[in-house]
Amino acid sequence: MTDNRTLLIVDDCTEDRKVYRRYLLKDPDFNYEIVEADSAETGLTLWQQMQFDVVLLDFCLPEMSGFEFFQLLASKGFNNRPCVIMLTGHGDEGLAVQAMKLGVHDYLVKNNLKSDVLQLAVRNAIKQSHLQAQLNKTLEQQRLIATTALNIRKSLDLDQILYTAVVEVQRLLRCGVAVYQFSDDFCADNITQLMASSTLPRAQLFGNCHQVENEGEYHWQCEGLINNIYATGLKHPQSLVQECYKEGNLVIPINLSHESKLWGLLVAHHNSDERLWQPDEVEILRELALQLAIAIQQAQQLQETQASLVKEKQLSRFKSQFLGTVSHEYRTPLASILAAASTLHKYGDKLEVPKQQRFLEIIEQKARQMSKLVDDMLLVNQIELDRTKFKSAPLDLMHFFSDLMEQQRLVVGDSHELIFKVTGSSESFWGDKVLLRQLFTNLISNAIKYSPDGGNIEFHLINKETEIILHVKDEGVGISSKELDKLFQPITCTSNIDTIPGAGLGLVIAKACVELHGGTITFDSHPNQGTVVTVHLPKSRN
Q1: What is the pLDDT of residues 341-370, one digit of tens each?
Q2: SS3 173
């Protein structure tokens, strides 16, 4: 099979043009479409109007030299760099060297010209021109990719990166573009379903999808399998997901190197079904998807670093505040212990036995208070450093909490009444006994502590099919609604309980115990009306 090529002959000699035509039409490798020009002006006009693979150029034209003609062809006013073979009636080595320096492909002498020589020269010129065109195209493609990638990676803000990506890819490929960011619970099976003509219903794909204000057509936030959509050049990007695997669209996965799962998709869409994707366009989109993945990863790393810095500052602030609070909380029981011990040391033999016993009880009580404070400090430190371990085991919660309630009744004063209620059977529960004891102790202790005038303290264990619910209700000082959000911050005391001693660690520990079980904790409270704490715990943590 022969290739078809177009060739322009610019020569004022009719006989020479006939010879070139005859020689080239005998070439077994190429079929030539040959166009002739008998003047430089006609040749320049034809060059502008048509695309030629090779130009056979006479060195001596009436209007100008072949060098001048070649320089006009190569100037900025014309479409592409010509592949020129120059011919002359007189062999001149100096002219040949000059021609090669200008960029002429070959230099042939007419007097010695034979058909095989001309055919070989033209074939070589075509091959070199083709290779040069490929090289130029590759270099231009790399330049465009580099420029686009640089624009995408200028920012470390994820929204800006994705916005820039869709705009830049649309500008580069002249098509509709969308970036789909999958939600955290998206898995490979969802991709399979998407590819199978979108068997997933749209409600499951998008959930609640709405356009973000001030972002024009570029950004939608969703709450389904797809978290966010960044798009441009598309009237309805939501519908594109269900059609993104059709033949007319380019769909490139966005995989982050530090994650094992798919982050999202880069989709390019032709608004016209007649246009086909070229291999170089596919390669460009693949490379830009890779660059986009790098930019996304850098943005995530920045966010993680910033979050770590914020956490470090919070931890430093917490430690400083913590030390001050703990020092204060330590001084009070320590002062009581020292006073009681000093009294016993100086006057023990003069005190009656009941008074001696009372001083010993004070020492024991305050020592236990200090011991609990140390235990709370160590546990909070483990929580802050994410070192708390969860050890799950089957538990009979009714007996477990019943025993804990009896222990509390032994130490609680006469002004408080502890009530234990059970609804349903709490069998088949798996949890961490140590963490649950911490949770119970802190919630009951808080209920007692913040009910200084006494009253009922109710602990209600409710069994459901897949979870258990704990209600702890007191009749104490309560908390205002504006201060509820601060409860789980370390070293926090609300405005109406600042006279009640405590380091403010109990609820921090309680919340951590709940979350390690995969549960939730909420408060319902009003000043001077008491507080209800509700804890939901799954029967087994996944």
Answers
A1: 888 888 888 888 888 888 888 888 788 777
A2: helix
